[in-house]
Amino acid sequence: MPKRLPSLTAEHLPSLIESILFVAEEPVEVPLLAQALRRPEAEIEGALAELEQRCMLGGTRVQRTGELVQLVTNPEAGPYVERFLGLESRQRISGAALEALAIIGYKQPLTRAGVEQIRGVNSDAAIASLIARGLIEEVGKAPGPGRPALLGTTMRFLEHFGLSNPTDLPPLATTEMAEALGLQAVDDGDDEDFEEDDKVPEPSEDESEEPVASA
């Protein structure tokens, strides 16, 4: 016989959702939360909004992309959490990859050709590096010949830069791309490392990349 669950009221929902997100190993879909708690998705959405407000006063944050939601640590606690976990030696990423990441972050969804049109150079290596690190992924297909893949940022991207959702990026209308992302490029000539503190450099020709031929 299935175990009888305690009665559930609306005031319990935020705490129960927090508990589920805490033990979940991966981001959870909102419909799955509704199914587990046997409540309409509208009630789950309201409870998530309340939980998000509660978390602003503590050490965790509600992070969301579309239907996916998860519980993450407060970005301000990041350096201390890393020290505790022994993660002070962080990987870094090349300036070329950071340029591509910034472009995709602000213009997503965007095709590989769209990235190259803005950068003016071949970006295959940079995009491959970002995909390998789980910072960007294919999010759909563009209409037109060949239906090229559309690229967008991932939950891992949000975690690295302390964002709750992709729309939290600062508006480019009031700041340069480098200042907006708060990153710094590492001019090491390769894509071996990644560092969250790095600033995006001003777009420049990378000698290791081939210029994109104009139409």
How would you characterize the overall build of this protein?
With 215 residues, this protein is an alpha+beta fold. The protein has two domains: 10-77, Orthogonal Bundle (Arc Repressor Mutant, subunit A); 90-215, Arc Repressor Mutant, subunit A (Orthogonal Bundle). The chain is built from nine helices and six strands, in the order αβααββααβααββαα. The strands form two sheets. A three-stranded antiparallel β-sheet has the order 1-3-2. A hairpin with a 7-residue loop joins strand 5 and strand 6 (149-153). It is globular and about 60 Å long.
CATH architecture heading of the largest domain: Orthogonal Bundle
CA radius of gyration? 20 Å
Mean pLDDT across all amino acids: 78
For the biggest sheet, the summary is:
3 strands, antiparallel
**Tally of helical segments:** 9
Name the overall outline: globular
CATH topology of the largest domain: Arc Repressor Mutant, subunit A
Strand-pairing-aware structural class: alpha+beta
Strand order of the largest sheet: 1-3-2
Keywords:
215 residues; alpha+beta; Arc Repressor Mutant, subunit A; 3-stranded antiparallel sheet; 9 helices; 6 strands; 13% strand
